[in-house]
Amino acid sequence: MAKAVRVHKVGGPEALVYEPVDLAAPGPGEVRIRQHAIGLNFIDVYYRTGLYKAPGLPFIAGNEAAGEVIAVGPGVTNFHPGDRVAYYENLGGYATERNIGWQRLVKLPDHITYEQGAVLMLKGLTVWYLLHKTFKVEPHHRVLIHAAAGGIGLLACQWARALGAHVIGTVGSKAKADLALANGCDHVILYNEEDFVGRVKQISRGELCDVVYDGVGKSTFPGSLSCLKPRGLFVSFGNASGPVPPFSIAELNSHGSLFATRPKLNDYIGKRSELLEGADTLFSAIISGKLHVPINHAYALKDAAKAHADLESRATTGASILKP
């Protein structure tokens, strides 16, 4: 019987319950996957705590994973048992097996492991759209990336550097600073010890940044706005420290006619053609050696509560996975 980590009542890490689940045969348009690796993300925490509302209770946590196709439902012709696949899908990922619509799947190239695939479909595709679609990073740009030693941060620093940008990152410890520097950062700011706004001004000699990528939220706002040059872009894509509080739109004017956006992955891969474009670009960057995937922590699926506690306490760096 399949097993999964479900949330029956939103709350702390203890809300994650590892238990058997019934799994019907795949329906029309569905594929059954035996999962080999599952990505761990802050969005999983948001659903667990109730910050993001699940469709109902109980629900299976988890939003990205990779595995092997073991059965297909009626009407599925482009996936077959034995195919290696990965996906991003809201909820349902923390499971040993699952059914999922084939439109959400991409095939993994031979040179991409299940472990890599499991952390690329949310984190990797997020970095793809942030740097290529939300703001097209080019060699003349200066970028600020908060939480530069996290799963998204390390990929974003590498890719921004590969695109030729000048990369400034913020981190919470010396060890994380060393990691960020080894993964593309030109300068790293220890936000617990330094005023990151003042350091950005110093590093840039007062010229500031073209774009700020902020997945931290409450604790880095409104400082992020003060790091932007006139007409710069504030990209708020996460809430690791809590949501950005409501603010007056006039603040964008007072900081130099700034732009601000709150993007999400689904709006950049809503069409299958967009999903495939992002995945192909991402996989090519990995295979060519332009990017590497730092997977620094692995937990058994049954220990998902421990993984969440570590993630929330900032005890992790790079990407983390759950192993069924």
TrEMBL record:
GO terms for molecular function: mRNA 3'-UTR AU-rich region binding; NADPH binding; quinone reductase (NADPH) activity. It comes from the Bacteria. SUPFAM superfamilies: GroES-like, NAD(P)-binding Rossmann-fold domains. The keyword Ion transport does not apply. Residues 11-322 form the Enoyl reductase (ER) domain. Keywords: NADP, Oxidoreductase. InterPro entries: ADH-like_C (IPR013149), ADH-like_N (IPR013154), ER (IPR020843), GroES-like_sf (IPR011032), NAD(P)-bd_dom_sf (IPR036291), QOR-like (IPR047618). GO terms for cellular component: cytosol. This is Quinone oxidoreductase, NADPH-dependent.
